[in-house]
Backbone:
DNA sequence: AGTAAAAGGTTTTTT
DNA sequence: ACCTTTTACT
C-alpha cells in the first residue's frame, strides 16, 4: 500500500514526532493517505483502542476502517474509535458524563427536536401571540445554535447575522435560559451540548483520564470544524499525543454551522512545532475538469494557493447546457444518464448534484417515470417525517420518562387531545415536573383521557406496558407499538397505509440493535438518508444513480457528475448574497461540486424556473447563469440547445392520458 | 371552552 | 409535506 503513494503522501504517512497538518486539495488521495497512516500506526503495534479517527460522517469512518481491515484483518481496525465528533462525544459522555453531572440515560435531541422544544418554551412565554411579530421557532433555534457553536455573544450574533431580530434580545435571553434548564430537567442533550460537555470534561477533573485514553488522534475535514471542536482536540492532546489533522481550506462549506477555517490556519499556533505537508497532485479528475474547478476558485477574493494538476491531460471538455425550463433539464439529464450508461458508465458511476434538497423534485419524477433507480442523499430526512417522529417518541418515553417533548407528542396523538387537555394530562401525570413515575402512572390508568379516545388510550397503555414490563428487543417494541399507530394514523394522516409501512421498515432497522437507548441515539446521530420512494427497497437494485446535495457529496467522487440548477440564486444561493463571507462559501460549494467529477462534468442551467416550490401555478422568473460559471464559459463545450424530441417521451403513456381523462371529465359538464 | 377541519403560507446547506 | 392561522363545529 505504501509503495503506491507519492512522495508527499508517503511523508504524511510516516511522519512522527510532532503534530501534523495535511493540507490536501480535492482528489489528492487524502482518504488513501489517511487509511495508509492508520494502517502504519497499527502496524507499529499501536493498541487500536487507543486510536481515535474523527470524521465528518459515520460512513466515512466506517469506509476508511474497512479499508484498513481489508488489507489485513489482524489489525483489528474495528477497535479504533472512529466516527463523528458527536458520536464519539456520545460514547465518552455515557461513561464519563457523571463527572459532569450528566445522567448516563440521557436522550439526544436532533435538530427538529430542539426546535420543537424551543417552540414549546416560546409559546409558553406567550411570545409571538397574535399581532406581535416574533422570530419563528426555527429562527430562535438557529440563533441559539450559532451563538453556542461560534462562542459569540448573543448581541454579536444578532448584530451580524440576525439584525432583524435585534429588538428581541431580552426575550430571546429568557427563552434560552428556560430552554437550557428544561433540557437538564428532561435529561436530554442537543447536538451542541454534546460538544460542550465533551469540551467541559477535558477541562475538568477527568481531563487527565481522558487524555490518557488515546495515543493517536486523526481528524478528517478539519476545515469544517467549529471553535468548540478545536478546543476539544486541544483538550484531548497530551504533549506527546500523536495528532494528525487533514483539511482543505478551499472546501470549507459549513460556515453556516459556525465551522471556521481559522482552525486550520491556526493549527501551527495551537500546536507548536507542527509540521505541514501539502498534497496537490490530483488523481481524480481530468485536466479539462480541473481547469474549470481551478477557474472557479480563482474568482475568489480569498487567496487559495492551490492550483490542482493532474497527469490526466486527456479527457472531454466539461459541458454547459442551457435549458428552457426545469422540465427540459430533467428530461435532458435523464437521457444523458442513460446515454452514459450505454457508453459503459454504470448508474453507480454517476451522480446528480444540486444546491438544495428540493432542487431534485422535478428530476425525481422524471427518473421514476423512466424507471431509473436512484438514491437521494441530503434533503429531507426519513426521520423527520411526522409519523416516524411519532413512533420514536413512543420509544423515547419508554427510555426516558422525563422526556417532556416526547410525552407531549405521544399524548397529542390521541383523538380529542388538544392544547388544553394536554396541559391537564401533563399535570395529572407529573410530566412537567419530570417525575420518573409518569410512565407507570399512565400505564396504571392515571390521566383522564377524553372519551373519544378511550380505545386508543387503552391500546396505548397496554402497548407501553408490554414494552416496559417484559424484556423486549427494540424491534419487538416497534412492532408492538405499531398496533397503536395503526389505530391513530388513519385519522391523523392522509396516506396512513404508506406511513404504517414505514414503521415496518423502522422495525427492520431496529433488528440490528439489542438496546433501545442505543438504537435511539444512533438513529439521531447517524440518521439513515431517505431513499427515493420509488427506488424500491435498498437491496433489490444493485445499480442506482446518486442524487445528492452538494453538502452531502463532500468527499465522494463519480465518473460523471451532472450539476443541475446552476442558476444565479441557486448557486450562489440568494440567501447568501448578503456578505462576502457567504458568497465565498457558495463559491467553494461550486468548487466542491465540480471536483467530484472524475471524467465527465455537465453543468445544467434552466432559464425559466418556477417561483413557487411545488410549481402549482405558472409564476416564474428568467434566471441568469451562475456568476461563478458565466465568466468561464469558454472552458465549457456548449451544445446547441436541442429541444427534447417526441422520441424521448415515448413510453410515457400518461402524457396523452391526462388529456384524455380531462376531456372525459369535462364531457360530464359540457 | 376546546377540538377538528380547512385554508394559507413557507422551506439552504447538516451533526 | 409541514406548520400556523382561521373558521366551524361539539
Residues:
Amino acid at each position: 500500500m505504501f509503495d503506491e503513494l507519492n512522495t508527499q503522501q508517503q511523508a504524511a504517512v510516516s511522519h512522527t514526532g510532532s503534530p501534523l497538518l495535511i493540507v490536501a486539495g480535492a482528489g489528492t488521495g487524502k482518504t488513501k493517505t489517511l487509511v495508509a497512516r492508520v494502517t502504519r500506526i497499527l502496524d507499529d503495534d499501536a493498541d487500536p483502542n487507543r486510536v481515535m479517527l474523527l470524521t465528518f460522517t459515520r460512513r466515512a469512518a466506517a469506509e476508511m476502517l474497512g479499508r484498513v481491515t481489508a488489507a489485513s484483518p489482524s489489525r483489528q481496525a474495528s477497535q479504533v474509535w472512529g466516527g463523528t465528533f458527536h458520536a464519539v462525544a456520545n460514547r465518552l459522555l455515557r461513561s464519563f458524563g457523571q463527572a459532569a453531572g450528566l445522567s448516563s440515560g440521557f436522550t439526544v435531541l436532533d435538530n427538529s427536536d430542539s426546535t420543537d422544544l424551543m417552540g414549546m418554551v416560546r409559546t409558553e412565554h406567550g411570545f409571538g401571540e397574535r399581532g406581535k411579530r416574533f422570530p419563528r421557532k426555527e429562527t430562535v433555534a438557529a440563533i441559539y445554535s450559532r451563538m453556542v457553536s461560534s462562542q459569540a455573544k448573543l448581541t454579536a450574533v444578532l448584530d451580524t447575522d440576525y439584525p432583524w431580530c435585534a429588538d428581541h434580545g431580552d426575550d430571546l435571553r429568557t427563552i434560552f435560559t428556560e430552554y437550557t434548564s428544561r433540557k437538564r430537567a428532561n435529561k436530554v442533550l442537543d447536538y451542541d451540548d454534546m460538544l460542550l460537555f465533551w469540551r467541559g470534561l477535558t477541562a475538568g477533573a477527568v481531563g487527565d483520564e481522558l487524555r490518557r485514553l488515546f495515543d493517536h488522534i486523526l481528524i478528517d475535514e478539519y476545515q469544517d470544524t467549529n471553535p468548540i471542536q478545536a478546543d476539544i482536540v486541544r483538550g484531548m492532546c497530551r504533549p506527546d499525543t500523536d495528532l494528525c489533522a487533514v483539511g482543505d481550506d478551499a472546501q470549507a462549506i459549513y460556515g453556516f454551522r459556525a465551522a471556521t477555517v481559522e482552525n486550520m490556519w491556526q493549527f501551527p499556533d495551537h500546536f507548536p512545532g507542527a509540521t505541514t505537508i501539502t498534497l496537490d497532485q490530483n488523481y481524480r479528475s481530468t485536466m479539462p475538469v480541473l481547469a474549470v474547478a481551478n477557474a472557479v476558485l480563482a474568482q475568489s477574493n480569498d487567496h487559495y494557493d492551490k492550483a490542482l494538476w493532474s497527469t490526466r491531460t486527456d479527457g472531454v471538455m466539461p459541458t454547459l447546457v442551457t435549458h428552457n425550463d426545469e422540465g427540459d433539464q430533467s428530461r435532458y439529464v435523464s437521457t444523458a444518464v442513460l446515454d452514459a450508461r450505454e457508453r459503459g458508465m454504470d448508474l453507480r458511476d454517476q451522480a446528480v448534484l444540486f444546491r438544495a434538497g428540493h432542487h431534485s423534485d422535478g428530476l425525481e419524477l422524471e427518473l421514476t417515470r423512466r424507471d431509473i433507480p436512484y438514491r437521494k442523499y441530503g434533503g429531507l430526512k426519513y426521520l423527520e417525517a411526522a409519523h416516524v417522529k411519532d413512533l420514536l417518541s413512543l420509544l423515547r418515553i419508554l427510555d426516558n420518562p422525563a422526556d417532556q417533548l416526547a410525552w407531549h407528542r405521544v399524548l397529542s396523538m390521541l383523538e380529542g387531545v388538544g392544547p388544553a387537555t394536554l396541559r391537564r394530562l401533563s399535570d395529572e401525570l407529573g410530566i412537567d415536573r419530570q417525575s420518573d413515575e409518569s410512565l407507570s402512572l399512565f400505564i396504571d390508568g392515571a390521566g383522564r383521557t377524553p372519551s373519544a379516545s378511550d380505545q386508543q388510550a387503552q391500546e396505548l397503555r397496554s402497548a407501553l406496558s408490554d414494552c416496559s414490563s417484559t424484556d423486549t428487543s427494540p424491534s419487538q417494541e416497534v412492532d408492538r407499538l405499531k398496533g397503536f399507530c395503526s389505530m391513530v394514523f388513519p385519522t391523523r394522516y392522509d396516506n396512513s397505509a404508506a406511513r404504517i409501512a414505514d414503521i415496518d421498515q423502522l422495525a427492520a432497522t431496529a433488528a440490528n440493535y439489542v438496546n433501545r437507548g442505543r438504537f435511539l441515539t444512533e438513529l439521531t446521530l447517524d440518521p439513515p438518508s431517505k431513499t427515493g420512494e420509488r427506488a424500491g427497497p435498498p437491496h433489490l437494485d444493485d445499480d442506482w444513480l446518486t442524487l445528492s446535495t452538494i453538502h452531502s457529496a463532500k468527499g465522494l467522487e463519480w465518473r460523471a457528475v451532472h450539476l443541475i440548477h446552476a442558476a444565479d440564486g441557486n448557486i450562489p444561493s440568494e440567501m447568501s448574497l448578503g456578505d462576502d463571507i457567504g458568497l465565498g462559501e457558495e463559491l467553494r460549494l461550486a468548487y466542491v461540486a465540480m471536483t467530484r467529477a472524475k471524467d465527465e462534468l455537465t453543468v445544467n442551467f434552466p432559464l425559466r424556473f418556477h417561483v413557487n416550490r411545488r410549481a402549482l401555478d405558472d409564476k416564474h422568473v428568467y434566471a441568469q447563469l451562475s456568476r461563478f460559471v458565466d465568466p468561464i464559459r469558454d472552458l465549457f463545450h456548449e451544445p446547441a440547445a436541442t429541444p427534447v424530441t417526441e422520441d424521448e417521451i415515448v413510453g410515457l403513456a400518461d402524457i396523452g392520458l391526462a388529456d384524455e381523462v380531462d376531456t372525459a371529465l369535462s364531457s360530464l359538464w359540457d
Observations:
- Chain A has a mean pLDDT of 87.
- Residues 474-492 of chain A form the longest helix (19 residues).
